[in-house]
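Good morning C.,

I know you're traveling, so I'll keep this short. The sequence:
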Amino acid sequence: MANRLKDKIAIITGAARGIGAKTAELFAAEGASVAIWDLNEERGKQTTQQIQDTGGTAIFCKCDVTDSAQIEQATQQVTSDLGTPNVLFNNAGIAVVGELEHISEADWDRQYAVNVKSIYLVSRAIIPLMREVGGGSIINMGSESAFVGFPMHPAYTSSKAAVVHLTRSMAVRYAEDNIRVNSLCPGTINTELYQEFIAQQDDPEAVNREIDEMHPLGIGEPVDIAWAAVYLASDESRYMTGAPMLVEGGILSM
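The tokens, ready to paste straight into the viewer:
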């Protein structure tokens, strides 16, 4: 089905590569005008150009989503170049690996700044604009890790649990403004970030096999999550808010 997102103006954070980039491509293919927010200017512009080359509408905004001044500047660029946004995908995230007693305070704070605080900062900037145009859809990137206690990821898993509950609070508060807020919770996805993690292991092949076997459907691909984001951004999900949408290959059924 084409044009599922016709007339939508979408902001996707962390969209230079991986799930964010694939989602930007699908959003544009479904008719949305897309603003790609990322610190990686080279990759962000490449993704933007790819969308434009296939007839889609996209702009790139260099933005650190932990910096409110940069968020304000990027928001102004979106409204000037595309119009008022009615879709926001808070996708930007990082993964700090390490046992709790070995994680530095700086790394812990950075984990929460990117994964949780950025949702607060970006949403704070965009919600008033959505209200002006009668509502919209906010998608916050959660994870299977919000529901599973992975021992080497206490910072990451706890940050994603925070995202799920922040989403619920936002959903209840902004329903009266016709702003839906849902979290999208992927399983392990074959992104560059995942490949970088695997490469750091003592036995990469064994670790990859173990993770794959944890998921009944195996490790997923970025497109699997991007299509779920299309649904949440579209009017097809108009009666859905506050929900953690699990697209996790069956790991939570094990």
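Safe travels,
E.
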